[in-house]
Amino acid sequence: MLKGKKILLGVCGSIAAYKSALLVRQLIKAEAEVQVILTASASAFITPLTLATLSKRPVLTEFVKDGTGVWNNHVDLGLWADAMVVAPASANTVAKMANGFCDNLLSATYLSARCAVFVAPAMDLDMYQHPAVQHNFRKLQGYGNSIIEAGYGELASGLVGQGRMAEPEEIVQVLQNFFSGDRKIV
């Protein structure tokens, strides 16, 4: 179902960013094309080299490539994609997306995207349950985006509760369901 599909993967700063490598690997195995956009804070958790190697494409992080003046065109990226997945989605990026802020390549691309958007949040349980974050999830859903609910379990803080990013297999299944016409979120 994913063969030839163009997937934009936004990776935000979260300990769950390590799962993005597994997600890229599974998407490539399913014969999707994957373009990764990494936020500045995400690179503290996972390297662009890892994701570029797995996706077989340069990882994009800024509007301009390496000071050369070559532009990473967020409009073209938004038009290129068949689906956009933000995984992990931090509370900060969720707030930017919900409120139309675009101070980085990922949020600008989101605002330019004409494709389906899937958001897989990852954050500590108190952040996840905070009324402002829940409000932002509802706003994103109101715009037609899909939230892939965070799982329940042990979190990086040592607390136990909802906030774990969905497993890569679950995210791939959501995309397969979407492209097969089954709009059900796992």
TrEMBL record:
It comes from the Bacteria. It holds the Pfam family Flavoprotein. InterPro entries: Flavin_trans-like, Flavoprotein. Residues 5-176 form the Flavoprotein domain. This is Flavoprotein. The lineage of its organism: Bacteria, Pseudomonadati, Bacteroidota, Cytophagia, Cytophagales.
